[in-house]
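Weekly modeling sync, notes
Attendees: S.R. (lead), two postdocs, one rotation student

Agenda item 3: backlog of single-chain predictions. S.R. asked that every request posted to the team notebook include the full sequence so nobody has to chase files. The rotation student volunteered to paste the first one in as an example of the format we agreed on. Action items at the bottom.

Example entry:
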Amino acid sequence: MRLDKFLKVSRLIKRRTLAKEVADNGRILVNGKVAKSSSKVAISDVLEITFGNKKVIVKITDLMDSTKKEDAKNMYEIISEE
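Predicted structure, as returned to the notebook:
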């Protein structure tokens, strides 16, 4: 699954266009490497997302093409928030 689609479906970022912009600005790391919006993600990948001065690290636990709001939180596990 593409990184921008995962971020939107999991509701870590609300809109896919915003997810694409954040990724293309180099503010998302996948397994410690800078990732573009078109990067492929898989189960057990670790994402490090920087929102301004806030940093969130999550581990992907599931991939789904679409989800309901309550199921979106099952797609990832938060490792840390700073």
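Discussion: group reviewed the output briefly. Helices lie at 3-9, 16-24, 69-72.
Action items: rotation student to repeat for the remaining queue; S.R. to check formatting next week.
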